[in-house]
Amino acid sequence: MARYGKEQDAQSIAAFTVLKRAMELDSGSRYQQALVCYQEGIDLLMQVLRGTKDDTKKRNLRKQISGYMDKAEIVKKYLDQEKEDGKYHMQIKIEENATGFSYESLFQQYLNETVTEVWIQDPYIRQIHQLYNFLRFCEMLIKKPCKVKTIHLLTSLDEGSGKQQQSSGLQEIKKSLQDHGVLLELKYSSSVHDREIRFNNGWMIKIGRGLDYFKKPQSRFSLGYCDFDLRPCHETTVDIFHNKHTKKI
Rounded to 5 degrees, what are φ and ψ at 53? Predict the structure, then answer.
């Protein structure tokens, strides 16, 4: 029983820590992230409620859950209206040497089962590390909950010594995606400069450095070589928009 009580206490602490973060994000007008934290914190509190036997504690928990659900609903309605009006915009500043910004950490909250098509515009998918970055991004897209069937890449053609490397690398990625039931459509343009990623659920993400915002690891056996949440980043800005009617690039 004592062990069970400690587990309950740990769950409560975790829930309120997440909900405290939700309110901080809410106050800072970072509504999309706030909503994710509200939902996560409420789920954790619901688990605590289900394991609580004391009636007084149950009443208090239900009251707290109801209050947080009201806050989450206000944020959700605001975001829905912003999306409907095409006004949604959030900016994330990635500081020099910051960590915790893997593709999964940055994009996961915008990916769901409705995402079936993705448009990527990035002029620098040329060098080996850039090709690997694109491959990692594609790996994320084919995982659940996404049901991606088509990926469009618009990039520039390497006219130098790396032309063959770029072409063969992208063709290998295309073949590998095809083996997973995903079509990769490749287009090249000498005039492409902007970097943006669009999902057909309405989200559009613009990263100042495109997908190439990770620093080179110190060695092959240093932390961050495999786990990109531990990889230091170059300074850049991420702008996130929502448009109900996503247009093709």
Answer: -100, -30
Torsion angle, alpha carbons of 135, 151, 172, 232, to 10 = -10
d(CA 208, CA 210): 6
The strand order across the sheet containing 203-207 reads: 89-94, 236-242, 203-207, 196-199, 117-121, 150-155, 183-188
Positive or negative, the CA dihedral 68, 99, 136, 188 is positive
Record the pTM: 0.71
C-alpha angle 150-154-158 in degrees, rounded to nearest 5: 130
Gyration radius (Cα) of the chain, Å: 21
Structure tokens at 68: 């947080």
DSSP 29-70: T-HHHHHHHHHHHHHHHHHHHHT---HHHHHHHHHHHHHHHH
Dist. CA 168–CA 205, nearest whole Å: 27
Q: What is the pLDDT of residues 116-137, one digit of tens each?
A: 999 999 999 999 999 999 999 9
Which helix (H) or strand (E) segment holds residue 19: the answer is helix 2-27
